[in-house]
Amino acid sequence: MANNTVDHPPGNSVAEGNHEGDFGVTVMELRGLMELRSGEAVAKIGDTYGDVQGICRRLKTSPIEGLSGNPVDLEKRRTAFGKNFIPPKKAKTFLQLVWEALQDVTLIILEIAAIISLGLSFYHPPGGDSEMCGAVAGGVEDEGESQAGWIEGAAILFSVIIVVLVTAFNDWSKEKQFRGLQSRIEQEQKFTVIRKGQVIQIPVAEIVVGDIAQIKYGDLLPADGILIQGNDLKIDESSLTGESDQVRKSLEKDPMLLSGTHVMEGSGRMVVSAVGLNSQTGIIFTLLGAGENDEEKKVKKSKKQGPPENRNKAKTQDGIALEIQPLKSEEAAESEEKEEKEEAKTVKKVNVTKKEKSVLQGKLTRLAVQIGKAGLIMSAVTVIILILYFVIDTFGVQRRPWLTECTPIYIQYFVKFFIIGVTVLVVAVPEGLPLAVTISLAYSVKKMMKDNNLVRHLDACETMGNATAICSDKTGTLTMNRMTVVQAYIGDTHYKTVPDPSVIKPETLEIMVNSIAINSAYTTKILPPEKEGGLPRHVGNKTECSLLGLVLELKRDYQPIRDEIPEEKLYKVYTFNSSRKSMSTVLKNSDGGFRMYSKGASEIVLRKCSRILDAQGQPRIFKPKDRDEMVRKVIEPMACDGLRTICVAYRDFPAEAGEPEWDSENDILSDLTCIAVVGIEDPVRPEVPEAIAKCQRAGITVRMVTGDNINTARAIATKCGILLPGEDFLCLEGKEFNQQIRNDKGEVEQERLDKVWPKLRVLARSSPTDKHTLVKGIIDSTVGETRQVVAVTGDGTNDGPALKKADVGFAMGIAGTDVAKEASDIILTDDNFTSIVKAVMWGRNVYDSISKFLQFQLTVNVVAVIVAFTGACITQDSPLKAVQMLWVNLIMDTLASLALATEPPTESLLLRKPYGRNKPLISRTMMKNILGHAVYQLVIIFTLLFAGENFFDIDSGRNAPLHSPPTEHYTIVFNVFVMMQLFNEINARKIHGERNVFEGVYRNPIFCSVVLGTFALQLISAIPTHHLKFLKEAGHGITKEEIPEEELTEGADEIDHAEMELRRGQILWFRGLNRIQTQMDVVYTFQTGQAAVPGALRRQPSVVSQHNDIKVVNAFRSSLYEGLENPESRSSIHNFMAHPEFVPLSEEEARIPPIEETGDEIEALPTPCPSVPPPPSPS
Q1: Conformation bin of residue 1101: beta by default, left when phi > 0, alpha when psi is -120 to 50
Q2: Which of 696, 779, 1084, 1113 is least crowded, fewest Cβ atoms below 10 Å from its Cβ?
Q3: Is 473 an active-site residue?
Q4: Where is this region: Disordered (predicted)?
């Protein structure tokens, strides 16, 4: 168990021992004592300590004066017995939350892809410049691409970081909000203790063992204690035991008072005997997991002892743990030692798995793994095809030998292919998915706060969308927990609603009001509402509050009557108890006679009535047959309406008869005169029937689990619409339920339970164990196509186990105990059933938002992968570059996830059945949409890819050297691709086959702004740079003088220049080379002297231009080689292009360069025939 002090490590036991030595009793002794009940406890106190005073002496406290309040003494007590504080589970640090977010499978796949991609982008092998490497050397890469290579990996990592931080921050702020709420509640709690003989109020956390606490009706006990003195004290221990009967406490019978229980009647003093984790509530909290660490250690030990194969079995025991199993087990296979170290972690994971891993997460994980595998296969195939194609083409078709100096170039080629493969993989994995899930959940949780749902576990919100069953409490959730009189039988008339005071005879009214005001505990009151417009507050006994409420409704007030007859003046009181089932109060009249007012369960009190007040307010004889008729005509119909019936009566004892024998109760409680019979209802919340009808339409079964009797439960269930007329449903009491589901040995059998639960709608008089059994049985059941997803509502400590077992536990924010809140997933801040329906709506909305995003994302992915794959295989290069793919993947998908994940829910979500656990994420309709759209997009893209140049009359971008800069052709392909995705985003808004995709589009401003924003971004990114004149360095035709020296060497800013010029340049080179070919022929002819001189003279400029051309060719070739060998000088080709001295040859009059430039070159040429003079120097 958790150690007894909060802030002392267990190693401090010596110090603790010393401090405990100061007192005559130890923590463990007191704890053992508090676990005993009634007679056993009394005997133990008598044997060990003599009496309660003995315990006080050992605890060094005075039963009358209390503790001294000396800080040193208080500190000693805290050290010895602990503080009255149950430490909350340690909040996870931000880094822990980040680490948890990183465990996502999709993110792991992305991280690996990104790291590979980054590594490759920095790998530049040395180049060989041998002619023999052939075409291979031609333009292996363009420096724009090469320098942008790292962007891709970095961008993926960046997206991963964003997703992780957003997720972690969400969890962290949610946890912080919740803890803030809790601590605020805790600080407000105070309790009355006696110190130095003074009655003072101190915060609950400051109570110590040995304090003398004063307790009175309505208190929630903050610590365990032993009664010193009590007056008619009754405690509601249902929050611990689940028993709804109140327990009478007295020194002789049962002096043990437990923390977390409510004082229902009476008052008294107790000595505090256990606080914090040692109190009964603290022990339950420890079981619920405040002391997780101890268990973890145990589990770790036991696991280590088992052989490895058992360990793996233990891991997979939990059904849902299997979903991430493939990944886990591969890692496990890798290293046994690592497994040993991480065992504790894994164990914790598995313990929590059932709760932590929601339906959606399981499906998404499976989907991510499937997509990852498909992507891997596609990318592997791409790489293999490219390598094979290359090898066969180079060494097979062109029959080149493999040269050692060419190896680096070949390697670089293979690396490029690998990068294309990684691109395909990156495109296949939907990066936006984790972000979409996170945004969707976070957005929903924020909005759910407004719908009175405080979500404690993010995934609960989405699990709720899959709920198939709700097991609800009755009191406080379906009903208002405000007893009210709704029917009355007064003066021979049965009123179906509270009558107007004017229709009742004044005498009858007077006697009834007096009877109710005086014959009820004076501690029961109706107070004004706390909030403006709220309902009045009921304090004390709820049934008595309902009668006082009747007095107020009859336009009378009970307080003046009580002021006139204070409690001291009451002559005798027969308090209500379960055997009497009635309460009577005797007053002494001024003439010496007595009047007794009585009230109680109608069937019992009516038996003792011999008269009844008639319509005139006069008593008339009331015979047994009259009584039977009244039971039949008044009381039974009221009970069938779910009402409790109470009879109010009186009796006069004349003065002449002398004082009656008060102890012979039976004689006193007879010969009564009945004033009225009232029917009391705990009214159903007005909005509940509609909410339940919505649930039923949405395919969710609502079951009522209550401690009330079966008639009332059945009546309330009918009013709520849980039981519908003419349908075959079961209403069982706890006892009967247990008989049906347990075998002879008393064990629950799943087969028996499976026969009961599908028809069961009401479980009455149920204990907490019954509730837990029912919930567990429904969850474990295999009846029906899908496993049930169960939500449970609860408010008492006793509901803790059921709330924890359920898929989603709802605790009541107002009436709920701390234990219930701690065990729950969602807290209903208004305790109202309709909020549960809202939660269902939001849950389904989350699920749909993610499906919408999936539909959008997968269309992008399918198209992109196929385009990249076929493009790479047919044209040796992906038509969509890695950076472009990332633009689509990151910008579009991230924004799309924002747009589609913030769609607000609509009522129509409640018109379909829940999806269930096993339904695939991608429905048939979605599959149809994805494939249909993919086919349409592929047709258009391939048409543009293979015939686009003809449509637009531009140059083809296909078969350009590998990784050459983008062409107009491919830019068109890219733009069309992006625009199709953008409009598909609008289609993705509907996933159930609706026709109108624009429906309600204005209700989501985020969506509209994202679509327009993405459109604008795409326009900007697609404008050719030379149209943006104001970006001067990226503009057109800059002269050499304008370019600073550094820029020429870096060449970083010429990328755009190159993009514009090189395409034109390529054509010109072909033209130029062609011309050189012709000119070489001419030169050759000249040399052999076969041509006439005039022709030679006419061709003279050509010879010069031929030298020029040769120079150009050499320059171009050398710049390419240089670029390969020496990445720093990559800019050479651009410098070469930017030199003004090279005028495109298309200008027909070839400019004759100055002699200085060309002289050496010409001398180097074979001299033509002498008749050709050298060109004159312009100087």
Answers
A1: alpha
A2: 1084
A3: yes
A4: 1-20, 296-318, 1155-1179
Of residues 425, 542, 558, 574, the one with CA closest to residue 882 = 425
Q: What is the largest CA-CA distance in the chain?
A: 167
C-alpha 390: how far from chain center? 50
CB atoms under 10 Å from CB of 376, counted, come to 17
Torsional class of 66: left (φ above 0), alpha (ψ -120 to 50), beta (otherwise): left
Residue appearing with tokens 């702020």: 173
**438 Cβ contact partners less than 8 Å away, ≥ 6 residues apart:** 163, 166, 167, 170
Q: Which residues pair with 672 in a beta bridge?
A: 609
Residue 258, burial from CB neighbour count under 10 angstroms (0-12, 13-18, 19+):
buried
Identify the bridge partners of residue 684 per DSSP, sorted by sequence position.
479
Tell me 23's DSSP state: S
Secondary structure string (H, E, C) spanning 471-520: EECCCCCCECCCCEEEEEEECCEEECCCCCHHHCCHHHHHHHHHHHHHCC
Confidence of residue 337 (pLDDT cuts 50, 70, 90): very low
- In this prediction, residue 548 carries a pLDDT of 93
- CB count in 10 Å sphere of residue 559: 12
What pLDDT band is residue 313 in, cutting at 50, 70 and 90? very low
Distance of CA 34 to the CA centre of its chain: 39
Grouping H, G, I as helix, E, B as strand and the rest as coil, residue 1090 is coil
Task: Count the Cβ atoms, other than its own, within 10 Å of residue 353.
Answer: 19
Angle, helices 407-428/105-121, rounded to nearest 10 degrees: 160
Whole-angstrom distance, CA of residue 286 vs CA of residue 294: 10
Residue 561's Cβ-count burial label (10 Å; 0-12, 13-18, 19+) is middle
User: What are the sequence ranges of the domains in the chain?
Assistant: 453-478+686-831, 486-678
- Report the distance separating Cα 784 and Cα 790, nearest Å: 14
Task: Please identify which of the residues 171, 236, 451, 473 carries the catalytic annotation.
Answer: 473
- pLDDT of 640 reads 77
Task: Name the amino acid, one letter, at 28.
Answer: M
Q: Model confidence over 375-384: pLDDT tens digits?
A: 888 888 888 8
CB atoms within 10 A of CB 1006: 17
**Residue where the block lists tokens 């359920």:** 806
Which among 282, 288, 182 has a CA at the least distance from the CA of 823?
A: 288
State the DSSP H helix or E strand holding residue 232, giving kind and residue range, or none if neither.
strand 224-236
Cα dihedral across residues 367, 370, 374, 376: positive or negative: positive
b/e code 858-870 from CB counts within 10 Å (16+ = b): bbbbbbbbbbbbb
Helix axes 1100-1125, 1055-1087, angle to 10 degrees: 130
Per the CB < 8 A criterion, the answer to whether 464 and 700 are in contact is no
First to last CA, the chain: 104
Is 992 in contact with 908 (CB distance < 8 Å)?
no
* Chain center to CA of 57: 53
DSSP state of 535: P
Highest mean pLDDT, choosing among 2-6, 140-144, 396-400, 990-994: 990-994
Kindly indicate the confidence band of residue 489, based on its pLDDT and cuts at 50, 70 and 90. very high
- Cα–Cα distance measured from residue 135 to residue 995, given in angstroms and rounded to the nearest whole number: 54
Q: Is the pTM of this model over 0.85?
A: no
The rounded distance, in Å, linking the Cα atoms of 646 and 597 is: 13
The pLDDT score that the predictor gives to residue 681 is 83
| pLDDT at residue 471, rounded to an integer | 93
Helix, strand or coil for residue 558?
A: coil
For residue 949, the surrounding DSSP H or E stretch is helix 924-952
φ, ψ dihedrals at 547, nearest 5°: -70, -40
Helix axes 336-356 and 292-305, enclosed angle (nearest 10):
130
Q: Which CATH architecture has domain 453-478+686-831?
A: 3-Layer(aba) Sandwich (3.40)
Q: Does domain 486-678 have CATH number 3.40.50.300?
A: no
For 835, the 3-state DSSP assignment is helix
What is the gyration radius of the CA atoms in the chain, in angstroms? 44
